[in-house]
Design goal:
Blueprint: E1 6-11, H1 20-29, E2 33-38, H2 48-55, H3 73-80, E3 83-89, H4 91-98, H5 105-112, E4 116-121, H6 125-128, H7 131-142, E5 146-147, E6 151-154, E7 160-164, H8 168-179, E8 189-194, E9 199-200, E10 206-207, H9 214-225, E11 229-234, E12 246-249, H10 253-264, E13 269-272, E14 279-281, E15 290-292, E16 295-297, E17 300-302, H11 306-313, E18 319-326, H12 330-340, E19 345-350, E20 362-363, E21 366-368, E22 373-375, E23 379-380, H13 381-396
Parallel strand pairs: 1-2, 1-3, 3-4, 4-5, 8-11, 8-13, 11-12, 13-18, 18-19
Antiparallel strand pairs: 6-7, 9-10, 14-17, 15-16, 19-21, 20-23, 21-22
Length: 397
């Protein structure tokens, strides 16, 4: 995902510096070339050897260190960097960079970097709310630095408050969003549905299905990372919700219908990946379920067809994409849906195909349009999400 990208981690003097070893490890696992800068104070919290072992690069601390191959080191690194993450960012270093002070290897290199720079403040609650620190943070933001908001929680001294550095995965997600993908969906509004709706039988029981929401969440995350303004309308899911997305929770098919239709007009692309129940009980909360020949008998009615309603309501230039999970006659049934629902594309898969069922991390899709039928090999759902978006962009062009 980050192969060929150079990420500079600028680590300053904060107790949260220990977390940056895991950030470096996660980035390397994604294929990034990771270079680490440290302030002298940072070395009091974590040994530079830790980073050197993980990255296979010398950890740069001293501007006048002669133990490297001849080059103007901070300039060479600044040219190579695709992104700089200053984390944890102490009040001291934030203040120095905001006011143009470059008096060590870290601040000198950051000043020389033309690439995107992210800042993750980490300090005591009272420090982060000090008006001087707050002004410096605002100043950096005004200069184009990306600010990663500090978390609220238990701090190093045991106090509860603002100033915690976010978890390592959050920092990595910010880097992925900035440099992993071309921003070919910038300016587009994308709505995705995900998960399994639940139809209440009574206050205790409900009808649902096996959908985990993994595919829809992967689609929302991929669209956001490619620059789109994304709304995810989700029912029951097992996956962590994506960052940088407007997440809207619903429960029933009726709830999802209302949430989708309320937002449909303003969308450029709508992808219905949720497994919506076809039927809902007509019993009221206080009615009893009848038994017939020893079996439960529940009167049902059909839920409203979201995909068909979208096809009927669509505006010029809007793309509608649906999913078709079949057990038999996959292509034939999916082509019928493409026509009857008024979609631009149907993503078809079969419950009988290994790696394409509910709750797994892979999928085997066939992308069906009016003019094409592309059978994809087995791949992760994240990879499949990007292939779906690629095909939709081809249709837009």
């Amino acid at each position: 995902m980050l192969k060929g990208k150079t990420v500079v981690l600028a680590v300053t003097g904060s107790i949260a510096a220990y977390k940056m070893a895991n950030v470096a490890r996660m980035l390397i696992k994604l294929g990034a070339d990771v270079q680490v800068l440290m302030t002298r104070n940072a070395t009091q919290f974590i040994n530079p050897i830790t980073f050197e072992t993980l990255t296979s690069h010398k950890c740069l601390i001293d501007t006048f260190d002669r133990n490297f191959q001849y080059s103007v080191e901070h300039v060479a690194l600044a040219k190579a960097a695709d992104i700089v993450l200053i984390a944890p960012a102490s009040a001291n270093v934030i203040g120095k960079i905001a006011n143009g002070i470059a008096d060590d290897m870290l601040t000198t290199t950051v000043m020389a970097c033309p690439c995107k720079k992210l800042v993750s403040p980490a300090m005591n609650h009272n420090m982060i709310h000090n008006p001087i620190v707050a002004d410096n943070i605002k100043k950096l933001a005004s200069y184009g630095y990306g600010m990663i908001e500090a978390d609220n929680g238990m701090l190093a001294n045991g106090d509860i408050g603002d100033g915690r550095m976010p978890e390592e995965s959050v920092l990595v997600e910010h880097i992925i969003r900035e440099i992993a993908y071309e921003k070919d969906l910038t300016g587009k509004k994308v709505l995705v549905t995900a998960g399994a709706t639940r139809e209440a039988i009574d206050p205790v029981r409900f009808i649902t299905n096996h959908s985990s929401g993994k595919m829809g969440i992967a689609l929302a995350r991929a669209a956001a990372n490619r620059g789109a303004e994304v709304t995810l309308i989700y029912a029951a899911v097992t996956e962590k919700l994506p960052m940088f997305v407007n997440n809207v929770h619903v429960i029933s098919a009726a709830d999802m219908y209302s949430a989708v239709m309320e937002r449909a007009d303003e969308q450029d692309i709508i992808i219905k990946a949720a497994a919506v129940s076809d039927y809902t009980p007509v019993t009221t909360a206080d009615s009893k379920i009848k038994k017939k020949d020893g079996d439960l008998s529940i009167p049902l009615k059909r839920t409203r067809d979201i995909l068909k309603a979208l096809g009927e309501k669509r505006h010029d230039g809007q793309l509608i994409c649906g999913f078709s999970m079949e057990t038999d006659d996959v292509l034939e049934n999916s082509r019928k849906k493409l026509s009857s629902k008024g979609c631009d594309m149907i993503c078809a898969n079969s419950l009988r195909t290994e790696g394409a069922g509910f709750g797994v991390d892979t999928n085997v899709l066939t992308l069906i349009t009016k003019y094409s039928c592309d059978e994809l090999p087995i791949m992760t759902k994240d990879e499949a999400a990007h292939r779906v978006l690629d095909k939709l962009l081809d249709i837009l062009r």
